[in-house]
Amino acid sequence: MRTIRAVSASGAVLAAALLAAACSSSAKSGSSSAPAGGAGGTSGSTSSGTSSAAPAGQGVSIETHSGPLGTFLTDGSGHTLYMFGSDSATKSNCSGGCASFWPPLTTTGAPTATGGASAGMITTITRSDGGKQVVYGGHPLYYYKADTAAGDTNGQGSDNFGAKWYVVAPSGQPITGGSSGPSSSSSSAGGGGGGWS
Question: What's this model's pTM, rounded to 2 decimal places?
Answer without folding.
Answer: 0.67
